[in-house]
Amino acid sequence: MKLDRSTRYLGATALLLLAAGPLLPNWLRFVGTVGLANSLVVLGVMLLMRAGLVSFGQGLYYCIGGYAAGVAGKYWGFTDAFALLALGVVIAAAVAAVLGLLLSRYREIFFAMFTMAFSMLLYGLLSKTQALGSTDGFNVVQASFAGFRPPEESLRGWVFALSVLTAFGCAIALQRYLRSGMGFAGEAIRENEIRVEYLGVSVQRVIYAKYLLAAVLASLGGGLQALASGHVGPDMAYWTTSGEFVFVVLLGGTAHVGAALSAAFLFELVKSYVFQLSPYTWQLSLGVVLLAVILFLPKGLWSLAGRFARRPA
């Protein structure tokens, strides 16, 4: 199959990050890992937004992915990173398969509020569960990779490499999906879903499939976040966490999957510096950044790439 330009660029960037990983300082490698993990959730939110849906509840599946990795290691003795991620995907897909039957019927503010409500239900449940650490959460066991357990000082390097492969692999697959008939159907639904129904396409089935795919991506992000930080807590399901993912989508734009990857890393980098400089007002600083983007770049930071691409030689 012939590779398009986006696939080549994404693949080259992934190889570059893998090669540069051992040379990066520990703090930057950790920020990059968290950014890549969160970018998977952002990809799912972007997928829904391209269909005209805004989800404030992706923290539900983000938390499921993280807690699946934590519980499986703490109580069941699983340590393999691939198995932990796969377990989170299976549980998240099962939950999304049930909730999607209801949520695929709603649009606009109703969809946003229902997704947030289910996420807050999980937050309340975990906050009251003493066996899972209540509001403090609990630590995640050190992961192994296909039977190999790396030394503790090099574990973050392995998790970073896994995050690069997972995030960019999903981004390449999603970019191809967006270029398919099902991907374009989402944009058609956003414009006029009645006409889509007239064409013989079930709008509810398309929305259901996109919601299921977004849940799987969010669970992968939550699992990687748990492996990177070594800790999970109920705040992963809180509505502000889901709001940050929507913030990142608005920051980067929805034109390309590269917007989600770059905006997620940029958000984590800026957040780290702003929090260090102003730990009590960092949300205000990020709000100013978002306001500036909305005013001057309403299509997100990725629109700058389009401007440079159209600039004559």
Look at the structure and give the mean pLDDT.
89
Specify the number of helices.
12
Tally of separate domains: 1
Percent strand: under 5%
Q: Report the strand count.
A: 2
| End-to-end Cα distance | 31 Å
Note the main sheet: 2 strands, antiparallel
Q: Which outline best applies? A: globular
Helix content: over 70%
- List the secondary-structure elements in sequence, H or E: HHHHHEHHHEHHHH
Helix/strand structural class: mainly alpha
Poorly predicted regions: none
Question: Roughly how many Å is the radius of gyration?
Answer: 19 Å
Strand order of the largest sheet: 1-2
Summarize the structure.
By secondary structure, this protein is an all-alpha fold.
What does this structure look like?
This protein has helices at 5-20, 26-49, 59-75, 81-103, 108-127, 155-178, 181-198, 203-229, 239-252, 257-277, 282-296, 303-310; strands at 138-139, 231-232. It is mostly helical. The chain has one domain. The protein has a two-stranded antiparallel ribbon. It is globular, with a radius of gyration of 19 Å.
Main features:
313 residues, two-stranded antiparallel sheet, mainly alpha, single chain, 12 helices
SSE layout and pairing:
Elements: H1 5-20, H2 26-49, H3 59-75, H4 81-103, H5 108-127, E1 138-139, H6 155-178, H7 181-198, H8 203-229, E2 231-232, H9 239-252, H10 257-277, H11 282-296, H12 303-310
Antiparallel strand pairs: 1-2
Helix pairs in contact: 1-6, 2-6, 2-8, 2-9, 2-10, 3-4, 3-5, 3-8, 4-8, 6-8, 7-8, 9-10
